[in-house]
Amino acid sequence: MNDEETAGRKTSKTTFVLDTSALLAMRDDEPGATEVEKLLRSAERRGSPVLVSFITRMELLYVVWRKEGELAAREALRLVDAFDVTWISCDSEILETAASLKAQGRISLADSWVAATAIVHRAILVHKDPEFEGLAVEQQRL
Q1: Could you list the residue range(s) of the whole structural domain that residue 97 is in?
Q2: Which residue from 43, 47, 58, 88 lies 20 to 30 Å from 15 (Cα-Cα)?
Q3: What is each CA distance from 109 to 6, 61, 106, 116, in whole angstroms?
Q4: For 51-60, what is each residue's pLDDT tens digit?
Q5: Does the residue 9 lie in any domain?
Q6: 3-state secondary structure (DSSP) of residue 51
Q7: C-alpha torsion sign, points 55, 125, 23, 31
Q8: Can you tell me whether residue 127 is helix, strand or coil?
Q9: Exposed/middle/buried for 134, CB within 10 Å: 0-12, 13-18, 19+?
Q10: Would 5 be classed as within a structural domain?
């Protein structure tokens, strides 16, 4: 069994997928920051997987880089990496699911990847983004 299977598909523990909006909320101490940090710490104690899509990593990096520079962006990644998160790469099932979501035309490309990651891993999607409303994925809106 590979790390991704262990992290979500083959476990009975609650699995979470964090959207970029949740990570930025935590980093910038916005509303929802406390919930994200509690979730990360609680999940670590319980052994519940917390997954983050590759596209979220890229978004976090470029959003902070554009606003605050490269050093701040790399520090933002270090903050996330300090927690027990599993970074999820693209695989064929996530790709197909993301394409299906995007084909419906009501979600951005990046958000289609994040939602697809949650769907494929049967995870709760944690976010602040109204774009996810109405999608067939369990959600925790901050």
Answers
A1: 14-141
A2: 58
A3: 26, 17, 10, 11
A4: 999 999 999 9
A5: no
A6: strand
A7: positive
A8: strand
A9: exposed
A10: no
- Reading the chain (142 residues) residue by residue, the pLDDT tens digits are 444 444 444 445 899 999 999 999 999 999 999 999 999 998 888 888 999 999 999 999 999 999 999 999 999 999 999 999 999 999 999 999 999 999 998 899 999 999 999 999 999 999 999 999 989 999 999 9
Three-state DSSP class for 124? strand
Dihedrals φ, ψ of 32, to 5°?
100, -15
Q: Between the CA of residue 8 and those of 5, 43, 91, 142, what are the distances in Å? A: 6, 13, 14, 22
CA angle 120, 121, 125 (to 5 degrees): 95
The whole-angstrom separation of Cα 11 and Cα 47 is 10
CATH of the domain at 74: 3.40.50.1010
| Per-residue model confidence (pLDDT) at position 45 | 87
Evaluate whether 44 touches 131 at the Cβ level (below 8 Å). Answer: no
Residue 130 to residue 58: CA distance in whole angstroms: 20
pLDDT digits (tens, 9 = 90+) for 2-12: 444 444 444 45
Take residue 26 and report the two structure tokens written for it: 């935590």
Quote the number of domains for the chain: 1
Q: Who contacts 28 (Cβ-Cβ below 8 Å, separation ≥6)?
A: none
